[in-house]
């Protein structure tokens, strides 16, 4: 194979667009995702792990065998920053349980919600305690994943970029990064996108892309809301790294519309 052609294929392998799909519905979409040259983010829930564990692992192994680039979204109905010890322990066990799925599909990243929200805390010590609880769990997951080469990606939900930066800076950087969710940053914060990139840019290892009108987390197709995607294209290109762009639309139609719009703005084409 000529060198430039090989280089083009390698580039496409390193930074394909991905689509976020619940793990037990993934197989219905594989033909279409494959035809469009997309990677897959498998969403795993506690119910999947408890009630359909063998099937969940079978799908994860099958997606890997078919050659898809993958990331995993760990269960989000968890509270690793909770003040209640039993709630924290259950959350950590649930998140750790999902790492078996990441192993099965050789996921590049595993996305977790750290569960703290500075608007909830009335004193700095409450906030420090919440961060400390979440740090314990995030560090345990990071250390467990790091030998496999996968990265734990801490996602913004209600947290500000300053809080997230302060959080991840307390942990080793090996195998740890940020998943910047554009929809959450728009609907759940008043911080301009440029500030998210200024504070977190070097730590970003993944994007979640969807849209909304700034009021609630609608998960619309990219371009159907008021997220400033023109600013995003410039800011993400300026990072100068290949970073998985994971589309998190609310359904297949929103995902496919997002694919075409992102490809108009320089996301890699299938096979090129
Ligand atoms: Zn997200």
Verbal overview:
With 272 residues, this protein is an alpha/beta fold. The chain has one domain (3-264): TIM Barrel (Alpha-Beta Barrel). 46% of the residues lie in helices and 14% in strands. The chain has helices spanning 3-14, 30-35, 46-51, 53-65, 85-105, 124-145, 161-168, 182-187, 193-200, 229-239, 252-264, and strands spanning 17-22, 39-43, 70-73, 109-112, 151-155, 176-181, 204-209, 245-247. The protein has an eight-stranded parallel β-barrel, surrounded by five helices. Strand 3 (70-73), helix 5 (85-105) and strand 4 (109-112) form a beta-alpha-beta unit. Helix 4 (53-65) runs parallel beside helix 5 (85-105) and helix 7 (161-168) runs parallel beside helix 9 (193-200). The longest helix is centred in the middle third of the chain and has 22 residues, at 124-145. The model is unreliable at 1-15 (pLDDT under 50). It binds zinc ion (ZN). Zinc ion (ZN) is lined by residues 155, 181, 208, 248.
Give the mean pLDDT.
Answer: 90
> How many domains in all?
1
* Through-space gap between termini: 14 Å
* Bound chemical compounds: zinc ion
Describe the SSE topology.
Layout: H1 3-14, E1 17-22, H2 30-35, E2 39-43, H3 46-51, H4 53-65, E3 70-73, H5 85-105, E4 109-112, H6 124-145, E5 151-155, H7 161-168, E6 176-181, H8 182-187, H9 193-200, E7 204-209, H10 229-239, E8 245-247, H11 252-264
Parallel strand pairs: 1-2, 1-8, 2-3, 3-4, 4-5, 5-6, 6-7, 7-8
């Amino acid at each position: 194979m000529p060198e430039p052609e090989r280089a083009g294929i390698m580039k496409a392998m390193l930074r394909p667009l991905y689509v976020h799909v619940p793990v037990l519905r993934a197989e219905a979409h594989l033909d279409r995702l494959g035809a469009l040259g997309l990677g897959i983010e498998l969403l795993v829930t506690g119910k999947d792990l408890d009630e359909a564990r063998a099937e969940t692992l079978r799908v994860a192994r099958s997606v890997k065998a078919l050659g898809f680039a993958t990331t995993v979204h760990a269960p989000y109905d968890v509270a690793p920053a909770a003040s209640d010890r039993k709630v924290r322990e259950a959350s950590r066990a649930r998140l750790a349980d999902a790492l078996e799925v990441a192993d099965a599909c050789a996921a590049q990243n595993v996305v977790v919600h750290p569960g703290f929200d500075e608007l909830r805390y009335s004193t700095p010590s409450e906030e420090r305690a919440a961060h400390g609880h979440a740090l314990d769990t995030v560090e345990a997951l990071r250390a467990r994943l790091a030998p496999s080469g996968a990265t734990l990606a801490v996602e913004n939900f209600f947290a500000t970029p300053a809080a997230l930066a302060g959080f991840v800076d307390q942990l080793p950087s090996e195998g740890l990064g940020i998943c910047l969710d554009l929809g959450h940053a728009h609907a759940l914060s008043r911080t301009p996108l440029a500030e998210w990139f200024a504070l977190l840019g070097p730590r970003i290892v993944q994007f979640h892309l969807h849209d909304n009108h700034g009021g609630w987390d609608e998960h619309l197709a990219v371009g159907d809301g008021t997220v400033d995607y023109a600013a995003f294209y410039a800011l993400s290109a300026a990072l100068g790294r290949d970073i998985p762009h994971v589309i998190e639309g609310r359904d297949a139609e929103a995902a496919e519309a997002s694919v075409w719009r992102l490809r108009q703005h320089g996301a890699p084409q299938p096979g090129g």
